[in-house]
Amino acid sequence: MIISIPLLSPIVNCNPYFVNRTSLIVLRTSLIVLLLLSFAVSAQDHAGLQKVNALLEEYKNDKDLKPASYSFCVLNAKTGKVLCEYKSTIGLTPASTLKVLTTGAALGTLGNGFRYETKIQYTGTWDSTKGIIEGNLVIKGSGDPGLNSQYFKKKEDTLEIADTWAGVLKEKGIKKITGNIIGDASCFDDQIPANWIWSDMGNYFGAGACGLSYSDNKYCIYYKTGAAGEKAQVLKVVPAVKNINLISEVKAGGNDDNAFIYGAPFQNERKVTGTVPPNQAAYEVEGSIPDPAAFCAQALYDACVEKGIEIKGSAKSTYTPAEKGKTIYIHKSPALEKLVYYTNLKSNNHYAESFLKTLACKKAGYGTTSAGCDAVLNYWKGRGVDVDGLFMNDGSGLSRSNAISTLQQASILAKIYRDSSIYKSFNASLPVAGQSGSLAGLCKGTFAEKNMRAKSGYITRARGYCGFVKTKKGEDLSFSVLFNNYNCSPSEVKAKIEKLLELMADL
């Protein structure tokens, strides 16, 4: 274990021949005071480290952690110096704590104020006198994950972005489109990360990046349930997804959402199994949209028809570039710092994967997961982080194949802390202990409450936290804690980790 106990070492340069007796007394008194203060600081630091060591002994004797791998690392955020650690160089599955790498690199590369642009274009000709477009209407995506997102809607605002676009077309005098409405998602590939598992990808948290996303790339199934054991009734699907075929075997039971939706991208058949709580009037289960670009095109198609614009063709998607068109309207996303805020606060996988492919697109003109992972790793390597043994297979942490050490993660956070251009916006995106997000119930009634900001992560048998904490002495620390393969429930391991997080504020 590496420990750092600060000792004050006063060095006074003086010539005794030129110092009178009074000055010597003052000097000696000052030295004694400084020495006593040094011992007091040392004892205080040592007491904090002793508590951490005592907790480690608890971990070692805990039967639930016998098969587990766990690690932590705490750094002085200003200097990057290690204050305490345990097995901080081993690689562990980070779950959603991996998002700090992706969001930090996105802010550092693209800038806080970066905005995605989605363009409404037309191909062929536009007769403005007759109001007829002889050709297709194309929605040219640039990877914006926030397009029509629930995070940027007001409760009282029921207007869809597609309605706004249709309104623009109507104002410009367009009455008829002879071709199709095409959702062009060709800036990204059409693949989800290769290491995502079958039971994840059909659910809302398995909604991957798309060159043209819409409505968070998810839909909601509403269930009515009766007594435990009875089959749950599907009431409706919102928003309506064209051609989707739900095969539901969900039953009433349990106290939580234990329903899983199975289905791959572009596959319209979705099988839903598991349980949802009994005696519910309209219980929500969220899934990933099979083809987001087609869904976006259909939304605009329907909005145009609603406003009296005739369309001869249909709504379609393409993942290869559509015919180059002329731009009618440009929709700009919220600033990147706002997108990052919701990514980390809500642990949004779709947003994180979109940033990853955007970084690849910025470098090579085309977004893929592998190129995005390379871009993130190269960014942190360029910032002086040792990335040997750091394995990225996605940008969100949903993949079980990711691996990182707590030293690497804490070091990356320390780099962010010292970067004045991105630290403020990045730090604001992290949940606050005892106050917000996934940390709302954590460290309540301790000094860590309100003084710790961290990104949490959880997938099966992997849980972690990483972020910043201000200690009782007013020092800012960066930290990472990762636990894998424990033999207890998620809530039980969370309680074990919480003890360590509380002690960090006392270091």
Counted beta strands: 21
From the spread of the alpha carbons, the general shape counts as globular
Count the DSSP helices: 11
Determine the N-to-C terminus distance.
Answer: 15 Å
In CATH, the architecture of the largest domain is: 3-Layer(aba) Sandwich
Indicate the proportion of strand residues.
15-25%
Question: What are the SSEs and their pairings?
Answer:
Layout: H1 21-60, E1 69-76, E2 82-86, H2 99-110, E3 117-122, E4 125-127, E5 132-134, E6 137-140, H3 161-171, E7 176-177, E8 181-184, H4 198-201, E9 218-224, E10 233-238, E11 245-248, E12 251-252, E13 258-262, E14 269-276, E15 283-288, H5 292-306, E16 310-311, E17 315-318, E18 326-332, H6 336-345, H7 349-364, H8 369-382, H9 406-417, H10 423-428, E19 452-459, E20 462-470, E21 476-484, H11 490-504
Helix pairs in contact: 1-11, 2-6, 2-7, 2-8, 3-5, 6-7, 7-8
